[in-house]
Amino acid sequence: MKSNWIGKIALVVGLLGFLSLGAMQLQGTPQQNPKTNASDLDSFMQLKLEHSKEILEGLATEDYDMIAKGAQALTALSLESAWNVYTTETYLQHSSDFRRSLQIVKEAAKDKNVDRAALGYVNLTVQCLECHRFLRSRAPGLAPSK
Ligand code: HEC
After folding, report:
1. For the segment 63-88, what is each residue's pLDDT rounded down to a tens digit?
2. Is the Cβ atom of 101 under 6 angstroms away from ligand 1?
3. Which of 4, 66, 115, 143 has its C-alpha lying 20 to 30 A from 41's C-alpha?
């Protein structure tokens, strides 16, 4: 059981490293729309990283309140208007998958089920990567609309 858990943490940490690579690549993307206040958007988006670290810390210390708090904060971010830099169907679908994985994390935290919370977190991390991958695949010129 214990080694299982270590395996999961290793997976999560690996994914997180992968994710920061993805985020670095995103940072390298030039802002295509001069009207977009890039630094405001960047700091908004950076908050996702802060809150997902909170979930990871909560998992590592089995602090269910911290897990729930991080997941709730991420859900709230995803419902803010700044989140919707795109309003395409695919972007909205990615956002809803993202919230679904947060729902799993929140339920698991409530049930004090660390295994399910860890799986939810892995799922969440995959959603981060999938949406970023989608963003990178978009043709240049299809810039944020605001
Ligand atoms: C539904 C889509 C979507 C999901 C899911 C998503 N992001 Fe993002 N992310 C974006 C968009 C849009 C940007 C801004 C891209 C740009 O600057 O051109 C961004 C940018 C970022 C940045 C770079 C901010 C900067 O300083 O430039 C980080 C870091 C980041 N996201 C982290 C995360 C993390 C961590 C998760 C998962 C917990 C996540 N994102 C999930 C859409 C998403």
Report:
1. 999 999 999 999 999 999 999 999 99
2. no
3. 66
3-class DSSP state of 112: coil
CB 74 within 8 A of CB 67: no
The position carrying tokens 């809150």 is 51
- Ligand 1 geometric centre to CA of 129 (Å): 9
Other CB atoms within a 10 A radius of the CB of residue 103 amount to: 13
Query: Could you give the CA distance from residue 92 to residue 139 in angstroms, rounded to a whole number?
Result: 18
d(Cα 136, Cα 51) in Å, to the nearest integer?
23
pTM of the model: 0.79
Domain ranges of the chain: 39-137
What token pair was written down for 28? Answer: 């390298």
Assigned CATH topology for domain 39-137: Four Helix Bundle (Hemerythrin (Met), subunit A) (1.20.120)
**Pocket of ligand 1, candidates 18, 132, 137: which has the most ligand atoms within 8 Å of its Cβ, to mutate?**
132
